[in-house]
Hints:
The termini are far apart. Strands 1, 2, 3, 4 and 5 form a five-stranded antiparallel sheet that branches. Helix 2 runs antiparallel to helix 3. 11% of the residues are buried. The chain has 124 residues and is α+β, with helices and mostly antiparallel strands. Helix content is 36%, strand content 18%.
Amino acid sequence: MLKHFIAIAVAVLLSQTAYSQAKPRSAMYTDYTDYTAIVEDKCAIAADGGSMMLTVRNAAGKETVFFINRGFDVKNTPKYNQVRDDKGHKLSDSEKQQLFAHLKTLKTRCSSEDCAEFVDSFVR
């Protein structure tokens, strides 16, 4: 019985040591000013009451999709107006401000008034 107790105690201590020595995950950093275009044919409004999907492209051609949650089911909750990218990363307030500011500049490159209005609705 004592052997089992000692074995469990050693296992717990080893796991705590390994956990405390593990390197923290590096923070995800995205420069939202790297995007060079809005992909107009890959933007949509959801049928949930106002959520939107906006796709942007960088100079290398890589596309990133951003979702803004404005569904009726999340209105008046902390989830309302949250922005996530296509990897599931929830943008912080400062990331959101940086993205929105850059989207306003990209809006000038839209080929249609519908695109410009879409961007205005997304960043409102």
